[in-house]
Design goal:
2 domains; alpha+beta; 7-stranded antiparallel β-sheet; Beta-lactamase; 30% helix; globular
């Protein structure tokens, strides 16, 4: 990790490895500290998944329920099937409604903001549906006017689904998403530096996001103001956190839903979340050896996936490079924090970290 900083591939990193309930390694490289705060982007998604499953345990919803039971406007969703001769979208009725299971596994047909070449994604981008300055119902109203990119249950596609789940947490719990997270997850786990914004007094601890490499490595100044409290917090990518805070979340997962005597989920619920729930047809559209649990990627065949982590390991990462994995077979989890806006660099670092960790495990 220090070599990456010396070579100016990244400006700094924080890495944390825990095994058998103890931190085995906590290292900082570059101008970072163990309490540095990072924008974790899509590492927000597993936390939203835990919130959803807490409500599942309360009987608020079931996996095979249609999403339209809780979002009536989704009953009118169409499927994009190309363009008409006049250039307008050709829309068709889906063969059946999207289920909550499909919403939790990115197999419901929803688009996202990551591929502007996709006509459906372009509609989401043009409508500015992921707008932190708009309340969550505005996103849902806009999304109900955008077609699905595929019929539900036919294709896996990373999507806006977890932002929809953030809205559902609010609707099913009767609480704003930020309040639910703070009261039901962050406070019980002691995640005191995790939130949808960075208070002014913590701003000196915020790690800047970098771009480029080598002589072009520089701070990306085109970032949103981290001190603004969002009106529409993103359940799919809005949180800031630290390595130690996120470690508490991972330890809770590794210990079957409890941390230091505080229980958030039942062991069986945790097991459900780290089990592949993608059905055979959309599973064919996923990377080899991988599946998707309830808001986590799951390794189902490590050899096919080309990874040293054991089968059953589950994980995800954020667009600015942060990453984690939880390995029940080895009783281990890893949290990596970096702020670098380059996917090729991030993926290489993630793969390197897995090689370095597993060559060190000899018993």
């Amino acid at each position: 990790m220090q070599r990456l900083v010396d070579e100016k591939q990244v400006a700094g990193l924080v890495t944390l490895i825990a095994r058998h309930g103890k931190i085995a390694s906590l290292q900082t490289h570059g101008p970072l500290k163990t309490d540095s705060i990072f924008r974790i982007y899509s590492m927000t998604k597993p936390i939203t998944g835990v919130a959803m499953m807490m409500l599942y345990e309360e009987g608020k919803w079931q996996l095979n329920d249609p999403v339209s039971r809780y979002i009536p406007a989704f009953a009118r969703l169409k499927v994009y099937s190309g363009k008409n001769p006049d250039g307008t979208p050709k829309l068709e009725d889906p063969p059946r409604p999207m289920t909550m299971r499909e919403l939790m596994t990115h197999s419901g047909g929803l688009g996202y903001v990551l591929n502007p070449a996709s006509p459906v994604d372009e509609m989401i981008i043009d409508a500015n549906l992921l707008n932190a300055n708009a309340p969550p119902p505005t996103m849902i109203d806009g999304l109900s006017q955008v077609p699905l990119l595929a019929p539900p249950g036919t294709r896996w596609s990373y999507s806006i689904a977890v932002d929809v789940q953030g809205y559902l947490v609010e609707k099913l719990s009767g609480q704003p998403l930020a309040d639910f997270f703070r009261q039901r997850i962050f406070a019980p786990l002691g995640m005191h530096d995790t939130a949808f914004y960075v208070p002014q007094e913590k701003l000196p601890r915020l790690a800047p996001v970098y771009k480029g490499a080598g002589p072009t490595l520089t701070v990306d100044e085109n970032r949103p103001d981290p001190t603004l409290i969002p009106l529409g917090p993103s359940g799919g990518g809005g949180l800031y956190s630290t390595a130690l805070d996120y470690a508490r979340f991972c330890e809770m997962r590794l210990r079957g839903g409890q941390f230091n005597g505080t229980r958030l989920l039942a062991p069986r619920t945790v097991e459900m979340m780290r089990t592949n729930h993608v059905n055979p047809e959309p599973l064919k559209t996923m990377p080899p050896g991988t599946g998707w649990g309830l808001d986590f990627q799951v390794i189902t065949n490590a050899a096919a996936a080309g990874t040293p982590v054991p089968n059953g390991t589950y994980s995800w990462w954020g667009i600015a490079g942060t990453w984690f994995w939880i390995d029940p077979a080895s009783d281990l989890f890893f949290v990596g924090m970096v702020q670098h806006q380059n996917l090729d660099t991030s993926r290489a670092i993630h793969a390197l970290s897995r090689s370095l960790v597993y060559q060190a495990i000899i018993e």
